Amino acid sequence: MTIKAVIVEDSRLARNELKQLIKEHADLELIGEASNVDEGFELIQSENPDLLFLDINMPEKDGFELLEMLDEVPITVFTTAYDEFAIKSFEYNALDYLLKPVSQKRFDMALEKVRAKLSNIHNPADTTKRLTPNSQIFIKDGEACWLVKISDISMFEIVGNYTRVFFEDKKPMLYKSLNQVEEKLPEDAFFRANRQQIVNTNYIENVVPWFNGKLKLAMNNGEEVEVSRRQSYIFKDKMSL
C-alpha cells in the first residue's frame, strides 16, 4: 500500500530534509507540500492524504490551528525544533513527533507507527463526505488538545452555539454547532436523541421506557439522555425494539 503524505512546514530547509527522508521509503509518496497553514489546509482538502508531517510553530497560524480547521484529520506526525513543545504535542495524541533536525533512524521509527496504524484501518470510499468510525477529529479547548477517533466519542451536546464532546473522562468544547457536527457523523453509529444531544449507540448501557412514550438512555459513562417523543419512535425502529 502506498502511503500518501504531505508536508506543512514554513522552513524550506526542513521541508527538503523531510523530502530526503521520505525518498528512502518506497511505500511513501509525497503528494504535496505547503509553507503555511492556509496553503496546508487547501492542500489537505484537495489531496486527502493518509499522512501529515506538520510543523507546530509557524508564523501567523500554528500547526494546532490547521488541525482545528479540518473536519477530518489525517494521521499526524508533528515536527518541531522545541523538545518541550514536542513532548506536549505527543501527549495530545498525535501519532508521533519528530525533533529537528530529524535523523533517518527516528524518521523510520515514526513511519513504522504510521504503517501499523494504517494496517488497522479499512475504510471504504466515502462519497458522502461523512466521517467514518476510524476518522479522527482535532479538539482544542483552552490549552488542552486532543486527536480523537470518532468511535471513541460517546456523545455530543449543545452548549450555547458550540458543542461539548464526551470521550473517556473528558468533556471539552468543540467550536462548531451540533447541526454542523451531525452532518459529518456516520449515521449507523450516531443518533440524534433530542435537540440538544447526539449519542453513540455503541455506548448505550440501558434503555428505559419514560413518560409520554419517551425513552431514557443510560450511557456507560454515567450520563442519562432523555429521547424526545418523536425520536423515541425512530430509535425503536432503528434498534428494532
Automatic annotation (TrEMBL):
SMART domains: LytTR, REC
Membrane-spanning segments: none
UniProt cross-references to SUPFAM superfamilies, sorted A to Z: CheY-like
InterPro entries: CheY-like_superfamily, LytR-like, LytTR_DNA-bd_dom, Sig_transdc_resp-reg_receiver
Alphabetically ordered keywords of this record: Phosphoprotein
Pfam families assigned: LytTR, Response_reg
Chain ranges of the HTH LytTR-type domain: 137-241
UniProt GO molecular function: DNA binding; phosphorelay response regulator activity
Modified residues (4-aspartylphosphate): 55
Domain Response regulatory residue range list: 4-115
PANTHER family reported in the protein's UniProt record: STAGE 0 SPORULATION PROTEIN A HOMOLOG, TRANSCRIPTIONAL REGULATOR-RELATED
Protein name listed in UniProt: Two component transcriptional regulator, LytTR family
Naturally occurring in which organism (per UniProt): Flagellimonas zhangzhouensis
